[in-house]
């Protein structure tokens, strides 16, 4: 069996202490190869130091945020009440050309600075909360941020594009996955033109509906089975917190599966090795 190298990334580090703690536990156990950091998250400053000990073991990236949370600086047009809108409103604004691009550019820079100020090093990759980084117009600002602050030899940007037929193969939340892929149309080509590396394929879209361990195992099995070498699989594990979190139940059951014995057995059965982006080699 040919062994495929796949990036396995947990999002939302810094959103809440329990989420961050669960991610650190999984990363330390070798169950993740990447972590994406939400510097707008309420617990980011408190939780950031724990990642420093994992720097040489996983990719540590920046989860750029334009939705749901409070921005790090004033955004009078996008967040006049001090809270960013939902992904639907941001998507409509981006697609219709009504997004305040100057405000967005400044906020992305603030979030980048919050990452480097807390950790003392540059992110290994850029991506976006609810995939907002790949929206039209927003993606141009993300590419500009990368060009200004990072080097292609040192970092990459997450691509969420999959060809339509490939999107359908795992048969998980197909309409939602197809919509995300459509929004990402042209993003891989834009990254290639800019000389910016990216993952080769993306899995991680689902309904965040209540699931048991067997259902979670089935979901990850289908994702990993249909992820090629150099692809990225996304997850959202964590422990519970008092703070409101609409996907708290999903985080808990994902953590339980990923921390257990059945997850490494699944990877071995499918011929998958979790890797950092920089360690990708041709499939063996």
Element pattern in H and E: EHEHEHHEHEHHHEHEHHE
Strand residues, percent: 5-15%
Rg: 18 Å
Please estimate the helix content: 25-40%
Largest sheet: 8 strands, parallel
Mean pLDDT over the residues: 96
Number of domains: 1
- Mass-distribution shape: globular
Q: How far is the N terminus from the C terminus? A: 8 Å
Which CATH C-level class is it?
A: Alpha Beta
The overall strand count is 8
CATH homologous superfamily placement: Glycoside hydrolase/deacetylase
**Uncertain segments of ≥5 residues (pLDDT<50)?**
none
Which class of secondary structure composition applies to the elements? alpha/beta
CATH topology: TIM Barrel
Mind telling me which CATH architecture this is? Answer: Alpha-Beta Barrel
Number of helices, counting only DSSP H or I runs of 4 residues or more: 11
Notes on the structure:
Strands 1, 2, 3, 4, 5, 6, 7 and 8 form an eight-stranded parallel beta sheet that branches. This protein has helices at about 15-30, 45, 85-95, 100-120, 140-150, 165-170, 175-185, 185-195, 215-225, 250-260, 260-270; strands at about 5-15, 35, 60-65, 125-130, 155, 200-205, 230-235, 270-275. The radius of gyration is 18 Å and the shape is globular. The mean pLDDT is about 95. By secondary structure, it is an alpha/beta fold.
List the helices and strands and how they pair.
Layout: E1 4-13, H1 17-28, E2 34-37, H2 44-47, E3 59-64, H3 87-96, H4 101-119, E4 125-128, H5 138-149, E5 156-157, H6 164-168, H7 174-183, H8 187-193, E6 202-203, H9 213-225, E7 232-235, H10 248-259, H11 262-270, E8 272-274
Parallel strand pairs: 1-2, 1-7, 1-8, 2-3, 3-4, 4-5, 6-7
